[in-house]
Amino acid sequence: MPLHAPEPESRTRLAEILGDGTSNADLGENLAKILARACTVLDVDTATVLRHESRWQRLVAVAAAGLEEEVYQGVQVPVGEGFAGEVAASREPVVIDRVDKTTVINALLSERGLHTMLGVPMLAGTELVGVLHVGSVRERRFSTTDIETVRLLAERLAAVLQAETMHQNQAATIALQRSLLPGILPAVEGLRLAARYVPGAEAGLGGDWYDVFRLPGNQTGIVMGDVSGHGLEAAVIMGRLRSALRAYALDCDDPAEVLAKLDRKANHFEHGVMATVAYGVLRPGHTSMALSLAGHLPPVVASPGKPAELVPAPPDPPVGLTVGATLDRRTTTVDLPPGAVAAFYTDGLVERRDRLVDTGMDQLAGLVRPEDPERACARIMAAMVGSRPPQDDVALVVLQRTAGAETH
Predict the structure, then answer these.
(1) Could you report the per-residue pLDDT of 267-279, keeping only the tens digit for each?
(2) Which residues form the GAF domain (predicted)?
(3) What does pTM read for this prediction?
(4) Residues 226 and 353 in one domain
(5) For residue 7, which phi and psi values (nearest 5 degrees)?
(6) Based on the structure, what is the number of domains in the chain?
(7) How far is CA 162 from CA 52, 127, 214, in A?
(8) How far, CA to CA in Å, does 345 sit from each of 278, 279, 381?
(9) Both 163 and 202 in a single domain?
(10) 226 near 247, Cβ under 8 Å?
(11) How far apart are CA 156 and CA 149, in angstroms?
């Protein structure tokens, strides 16, 4: 439909539908009230809002008037299929004057006795937020004013739904990530540990994570990972990968084998997901660390009397990148004399718009030295992040082997 200035009558009808604004009720209740008024003003029998779930390319009913069963029964419509799916795929208003199995895939619409329907895409800029459709049990013709009114309503509701979804996702992401990141690092005899995590200011919370856990045989596992993407979806995937890695770590002593299992899991169950992971296992006594990298940046190790260096471990492909391929992932052994420090990190620490990742890694290597991990974390964050909020998520774990650890 060509864009044009809304008719005064459409604006007046929209104002009637929206009323005095929303109450303190939740989004679903507010939408239901607005849709009920829409039925009255537009002289239709039903009105439904379906939210677009982009990852699965489907529409899910979230609010309705006159057809509340769509919400109660969790109606889902694939994009491109049926009436609402056609509206979503075309991103244009669609009118049908026959409601049966040839025009809709949601049986509730025909069971309700609907005869004529009008559907309009809910757009926020270029983003498809959902579909708004109205229906009548009698034969009728939707006028240009009707269509324009529904389009304006869809535009308003798209903005409301998008804002509420973003707010809910951010809150859920924060809660999920806080529950998955270690609140307190484990107490390991012969080892000092410290960590930092700061969410990025621009992209929102994402899939960065770190983990430290005790393993059988007096070993300790250390993980630093970064799932591609941001928001709730990345955090959920991060949680699944974290749990899977922990489970594999109980069965495998070799970090490369653990990451190979994680890779197979991601390729089979997490299609389209990619994550970089560094996984190290401190051997009994912490005299050495076995390390495998799945596309992740190498840790920095500093031993007493020696300059700090990036661990020369081969960067095998990220988890989930090579679908259907079998990789021979590799493990590197790193010596850790008493007093040695190792720093694991994500790319948000070393990469910024004004700093290339290689430059940042060199800068980090110049900062790591044998010292207390808490002091090291504070000094590294001050130098690398400073007084500006990081653009991307930053995760940092510093460990130090203490003297005498080899006796335990």
Answers:
(1) 989 888 899 999 9
(2) 26-171
(3) 0.74
(4) yes
(5) -65, 150
(6) 2
(7) 10, 10, 42
(8) 9, 12, 11
(9) no
(10) no
(11) 11
